[in-house]
Design brief:
Elements: E1 4-6, H1 20-29, E2 32-38, H2 45-54, E3 58-62, H3 76-86, E4 91-98, H4 106-122, E5 127-132, H5 135-145, E6 150-153, H6 159-167, E7 170-174, H7 184-192, E8 198-200, H8 222-233, H9 237-252
Parallel strand pairs: 1-2, 2-3, 3-4, 4-5, 5-6, 6-7, 7-8
Helix pairs in contact: 8-9
Length: 256
């Protein structure tokens, strides 16, 4: 079977501290040859870098997540530039807006989102987008600033929003969420959208697929997610693996 790519996982997370080596080996055994590991804060750059240096096929993305705005400082944007120059990432991320979690100041979120989009444009890099309840606001800034495409991570918007992202050169990340039978709207999107627009992801240790239940998610689950997508779309596992891997390579500029 064609190799698989987990286009969004947090292998550096503390949830993997006790068995990270085993988690990585299970991913390899499942056919996951590449894992994209996005940073979430300036302080987190160190953990992401150490993880990607330790595990072949783990590739970094540098960015500051909207859920951690209480830790971000304006001077961290200069640190982000330094980090990009020290180790060019596959993308700027995880960045974006979160209008679901209460207490996250919207103006501060928008400041860091916009400034990081400008950095992505400056360095000609794609972006990994966190878009919770904020797809229209995310798209508005993408149209204003213009970047080299990227991935709308854990996509859960409308068909119209999906098409807007695709028109701007983005792929849509699908993971464990669509595998739950109750996720009817998301399953419809996973069925209807062009396969050329979809990349696979886990967001591990979060967003576990249905067969994991409330347990810890991990990158090896991309294999099961690929099976679930193939079954939903009535196609072969090989077709899903081949095309979603090609999509990830294309949008992230991967040559490995």
């Amino acid at each position: 079977m064609s190799p698989l790519i987990d286009s969004h996982c947090h292998l550096d997370a503390g949830e993997f501290a006790a068995d990270r080596d085993a988690v990585y080996q299970r991913a390899l055994a499942a056919g996951v040859s590449i894992q994209v590991v996005p940073a979430v804060t300036r302080a987190n750059f160190t953990e992401v870098e150490a993880t990607c240096r330790r595990y072949p096929g783990c590739l970094p993305a540098w960015g500051m997540h909207p859920m951690y705005i209480h830790t971000h400082q304006a001077d961290h944007l200069a640190d982000l530039r330094h980090q990009i120059e020290a180790w060019r990432p596959v993308a700027i991320g995880e960045i974006g807006l979160d209008l679901f979690v209460p207490g996250l100041d919207r103006a501060t979120q928008e400041f860091f989102y916009v400034e990081q989009l400008k950095i992505a444009r400056e360095y000609d890099l794609p972006v990994l987008l966190h878009c919770r309840r904020a797809n229209d606001e995310i798209l508005k800034q993408l149209r204003k600033i213009g970047v080299k495409g990227g991935i709308a991570h854990a996509f859960s918007g409308s068909r119209q929003q999906a098409e807007a992202f695709i028109k701007l050169g983005f792929k849509l990340g699908f993971g464990g969420a669509f595998t739950w039978s109750r996720a009817t709207r998301l399953r419809a999107l996973a069925f209807e959208l062009p396969l050329d627009a979809i990349v696979l992801e886990t967001d591990s240790p979060d967003i576990p697929p249905a067969w994991v239940g409330k347990g810890r998610n991990e990158p090896a689950e991309v294999a099961g997610i690929a099976v679930a997508l193939a079954e939903l779309r009535g196609t072969t596992l090989e077709e899903v693996a081949r095309r979603t891997t090609a999509n990830a390579r294309e949008v992230l500029g991967l040559t490995l």
